[in-house]
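Job type: complex structure
Entries:
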Amino acid sequence: MALAPARVSMPKEAKKGEIIDIKALIRHPMETGYRVDSVGQPIPRYIIQRFTVTYSGVEVFRMDMTQGVAANPFIAFSTVATGTGELVFKWEDNRGEVVTVTKKLTVTG
Amino acid sequence: MSPGPHSGLSPSDGRSLRTRPLNPSSRKPEGLSGIQSPVSKHFAESVGEWVPALRPGRRRLCCFGFSPLAQGEGKQHRTAFASFQFAAGIILSLTALAVPSDAKPLPSGTTFLSDNLKAQQADEAANPGMLWVSEGAQLWEQPAGGANKSCASCHGKAEASMKGVATRYPAVNDETGKLLNLEGRINLCRTENQKAEPYAYESDELLSLTAFVARQSLGMPMNVNVTGKAAPFYEAGKAFFHQRQGQLNLSCAQCHVDNAGRRLRGDTISHALPNGYPAYRLEWQSLGSLHRRLRSCSFGVRAIQFDYGSQEYLNLELYLAKRAEGVAIETPAIRK
């Protein structure tokens, strides 16, 4: 995968119990495997299969993706700020490539 | 091929898709001439011959602007109603003089997007084009080539040094006298200053750096220079814009001036403004350059698709940038 394939947007700080919105965007062709190239050869499937998010080691979000998802998937979800910790965003594709982004959340109050 | 058959087509000609009879048989002669005269590789040379033909049209446009005043003068001493008409005529004329047709910037392509897409474009976290912008930010800092210099080695922080740069491009390079767009300027920097291989046009690296540089001018009005050395390029671009081409025998202007804002199949015809490029087109599911978009348009009218970075498209890019004068830069915009 190329440089800087992923962008994650979320607040750096939150109050305890607050619901925070998280947006994750990754660059990926999400090639379905159903198409053929200009000389008629099938283009192999190349998709992200799983997106997981852990918050201080606990899984808070998981999504299985299929060939029906468009290129450069954008995923928005929310979670509850329970305590200061790291959120780890992980994308895994069918070629075994893994992209990981880590963001720190500081919880006050 | 003689440019003769096209010489009557001027910006103010008024002949458009709307006024043209749609009966295929009545269009036949023009359609045939279009097939026989696709834009040739010698187009640039032939442009000079027929550019003057645009001038009568421009005069007619001026005459039209003054005509209410002229009519009013003739009627003023007949009746009170006529003098009212005269006054109204003056007001109309003054309004027309005070606000020339090209003073107000044309609406950006974003105007035609759905509310959802507008929101997605405005949100840095949701706009997929920002993936390329962040890659551009990394490339900016990355040393490359024989000189082992990064963009930042010379230009420092892009936020300061590149602010407003995209509003001035395409521009003529003083040393070579060539017209360069942002992509061309970046590649010139690579070969001259970094002693590196130029990026391939439409490569992710070049798109990323271009988008990153253009992003620094976000919200700033486009303002290219079309005088002096740039004038011949501008005139060639303008001629290209009004040149009928391809099997469909359409000029850019016939869709993007005469019919802008109307529907063409599933989409609204835009004003052909380059202020959002490189842009993320949903059709491409990727960021793409303006030249990729122009190639799509050429394909659409079944005309010659020029190469990425070709002189024809550079000239056209300059003309489009001038048309977009005053329109805010939105790179990376989302387009359908």
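Summary: Residues 1-104 of chain B form one domain. The first strand of chain B starts at residue 171 and ends at 172.
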